[in-house]
Structures are given as structure tokens and as C-alpha cells.
Amino acid sequence: MGKTHVTHIVWDWNGTLFHDIEAVILATNASFQEVGLEPITLERYRDLYCVPVPRFYERLMGRLPTDEEWEVMDEAFHRHYGVFAETAGLALGARELLSEWQEAGLTQSLCSLAPHDHLMPLVRTHGIERHFVRVDGRLGQSNTGKAEQMVRHLAALEGVPPQRVVVIGDALDDALAARHAGARAVLYTGGSHSRASLRTAGVPVVDTLAEAVREAERLADE
Questions:
Q1: Which of 110, 112, 157, 193 could bridge to 197 as Cys pair (CB 3.0-4.6 Å)?
Q2: Which H helix or E strand runs over 166?
């Protein structure tokens, strides 16, 4: 790691540090089958996926799901995802990047829309909890984006002004959350969105996490 003015990276989990896109597609299609929707390909998923998730279902169904439908779909997805995610691993180079950033005397944290009580066991299972000064998963409903959660996450980081933070994630919502909280963002193509979709956020888009870290360093030196 070179000299950098970045004080802090906020990592996303699903689709970023945790390479679970295959598990997501399998769980999505298993839950779709339960409610009579057609299966979806990875390419179509990446073209259509958005947060809040009910909007994603609206793009597929032509209408927003009812509250009852949403509860069924959300429960089914998380039930199937819990099974498929057991075989997923960290993204290429993630473990080394986390270690190198920490060894350089720099700080990082994790902010995810994954349920907090599901997130923590996974982070611990992969042996990376020690690299983060804070880990925040979702505590409330799963039908909202990350913006307010990101504000709370940054507020809980002592001595880290938002303008010195770079969020690294795989979704447009990560860029929106960063902007809402006064931070910057780099988006990674290995997760939930297509490159074309990510480019609409107006922030750097990269194909590897190593590139994401280099881009974070570059942003901080501007």
C-alpha cells in the first residue's frame, strides 16, 4: 500500500467482499418458484436488480408485490440463501487486501444490508472480523436502501470525517448511500449489477477489488 490520504474504507459485504452472486441467483430462483415467477438468468438479474428490493420485483412482475407477497418472497429468499451461501467464499484477493490495508495503519469497516445476526457468523467464519473497526448489518426491515444506515455507520466511527471515507460496493445503492452520507464511492462489477448499470452512478467502476482499493487511494489524493 502506498502513501494515501484515505483514513477509512467502508466495505459492502454481499457481492463485494463475499462472492455470493451464484448463491443469490440460486436463492432468487428457488424463491421465485415458490411464488410462481419464472427463473432469471445472471445477466438479467444484473440488468434489473435494484434497491429497495420490492422495486426489483416490480421490474420483474410489472407491479409492486403486495405486503403479503413481499413477506413470502423475502422469507423464501433468505431461507434458500442461507443454504446456498454456505458454499460461497470471499472474493478474489479480499483477505489479502483487508490485511494489507490494516497493516498499513489504515482503518476499514463493514456496512451491509444483510441481517446483522446473519452477517456476523459469516464474517467470523471467514476469519476477517479482526480487520474491521466496526461491522454493521441491517437491523430493521429489508425493504429499504442503505442511505440512512450508512449515515449511522459513519457517525459511529470515531474521528473519521465522511469526506475522508470511500465506500466500496457492488450496487448503485452503495454509491447513493455514500453520497447521502457525504462520502465517496467505488463500484465493483463482480456482484449484483452490470457494468452499464453501475456506470450510471457517476463514480469509478472497476473489475477487481484490488483496483477498487487503488481507486480509493487515488480519490483520496485528489
A1: 193
A2: strand 165-169
Measuring CA to CA, which residue among 71, 60, 67 is closest to residue 29? 60
Q: What is the tens place of the pLDDT at every residue in 113-169?
A: 999 998 999 999 999 999 999 999 999 876 678 999 999 999 999 889 999 999 999
Determine the 3-state secondary structure of 165 from DSSP: strand
**Which helix (H) or strand (E) element contains residue 187?**
strand 184-188
**β-strands 107-115, 8-11: how paired?**
parallel
First to last CA, the chain: 17
β partners of residue 111: 136
Residue type, 176: L
Q: What is the pLDDT of residues 52-86, one digit of tens each?
A: 888 999 998 899 989 888 889 989 998 999 999 99
C-alpha closest to that of 6 among 127, 183, 172: 183
pTM of the model: 0.93
Cα separation, 187 vs 205, in Å, equals: 5
Cα 171 to Cα 132: distance, rounded to the nearest angstrom:
21
The three cell numbers of residue 29 are: 430462483
Q: Are 51 and 171 in contact (CB under 8 A)?
A: yes
